[in-house]
Write a structure and sequence with these properties.
The protein has helices spanning 2-15, 19-41, 58-61, 83-96, 100-119, 130-142, 147-163, 173-186, 197-210, 214-229, 294-304, 323-336, 348-359, 364-367, 380-389, 420-428, 451-468, 491-511, 539-559; strands spanning 254-256, 262-267, 279-284, 372-378, 405-411, 436-440, 473-477, 515-517, 563-564. With 568 residues, it is of the alpha/beta class. It has a six-stranded parallel sheet, sandwiched between helices. It has a three-stranded antiparallel sheet with strand order 1-2-3. Helix 19 links the parallel strand 8 and strand 9 (563-564).
Length: 568
Amino acid sequence: MPKVKKCNRIAERREGPTKNQQQSKAKRGQSVNRDTSETVEKSPEVDHVVGNPKPCPESVSSLPSASTVGRLEPRDHSRRISSNDVRDEVNKLLQLATAQNTQETYRQGLTCFEEFRDTISLERLWPLPLEQIIQFVGYMSARGLGESTAKTYLSGISYYLKLYNYTDVTQNFIVRKLLEGCRRKAKSKDIRLPITLNILESILKSLPIVCNDIYEAKLFAAAYSLAFFGYFRVGEITEGKKQAVGHAVQFKNLELSSDKSLMKLYLEHSKADQRGKGEMVIIQNVQSLTSIKPVYIMAEFLKVRPIRQGNLFCHFGGQPLTRFQFTSVLSKVLKTIGIDSTKYKSHSFRIGAATNAAKLGLSDDEICKAEIEAWFVGSSIVKRAFVAARDRPGGVSLGLQRLGINMWWQGKGGMIWTDMYKKIKTLLKVNDKPQYLIMHCAANDMGKTKLKELIENVKTTLGKIQLLLPDTKIIWSQLLPRRKWRYSEDVNAMNKSLKRLNSSIAAELVRKGGGYIKYPDIKPNDELLFDRDGVHLSEKGTEIFLNTICAAIEQFSKTGILVYPKLY
């Protein structure tokens, strides 16, 4: 039987297709032609733009047809991609490219522009004539809209012009001059005052009087203290009408230390993080500045908070804390303590945190985002830490970007102390002087150079570096103990010598206004913290190393205390 079937198939190929096969093939051809003609005749439009002024450019709407010629095995055509599928995908990508709040603002700008054209009976032309944009700026000014609102609405119009590949007339010289005139006409001042530490203390004490129950008092106490000590915006703590659900900080992303002295909070979304990379925020209790303990306040709130996922700040019934409730309770409690609530808004917490940083001696540039430079220079320990930091949520700056701190890692395998001064001079050729210089080097010299001589060499070089960087805070990163040493088999004796080196250098630096970072959780008897070579850190050890550095630098920037984790 198989031979007979095979012969029949050979005969069919020689004689050509049968009548039924020809009809079937013709039907398939008609179907393909019908789909193809429909695709060519209909030009897709970008649906997400308001009013959909014009079809999208030809480069988007006209797509080349695909071919299967030469393919050995045909693909599965059970799910064909149509022109509608492509158009929907284009719209989806365009929506993802712009934040939801930004899209809504752009729509408002375009709506206002259409209202303007209807008001003075202008023709709805597209692309927009320059003359209409000029008159639109005058219309907004006459309505009393500020320069920032005018610029925002023009940005929305600019977005749609670029989207359809039209000339962006909003960037014309006369338009820019008109906006400058709006700015000078308004001359408005920011009347918002900062919430200081003293005011915050009074607010926290008065919350039980203002709130209906203890739970609400603990809820707002945790929210207000986090807003201050974490430099949080109100939109990062509460839910708003225009925000997507889950945009505020989440319960699952909070972690408290066992002794309630430090908390880590991963922020998935923020105004300055449009691509959603996320940031790690670390906050600790600072007893030297105030009696407020933000970590303890958060722990007290978590004791009464219902065990459920979702927004960190929620009411007992599970409803998320809203922006309106945040500001309303703030206004009530300010009136209770005798302060004019009209001059304090939700952003006053963030302003107060920046004001407090200025009192600690930080300049305006240092307080601004990404203006504080911290260099970390050293041996392979630093190099490996940098590689690990790249894969962490906070990135190479360890989530300190929100405090305006930018980390620059410079690690070199096998680096010895005599390389340090040359390395610093080389770095200064390509970058400005940092606010913090953290050094982790000289462990590779142990056993090769006598301890007393090595200590003198380090102190001498540090003196030269201080002359080179007189305004930089120089920080000594405690050299880590090892489970194996290259120049000695007596591990205990080498670790004791290393301890003497750390103590001597740290005391010298602190006395001259420098700092010291210690790693008390990294001990040589814990083999899980070290790599198999007994010298470098394991993945777990590196995480402890990075967490300690992050907490130390945050303490330095917020308090001015340059010894971590406790006073030397």
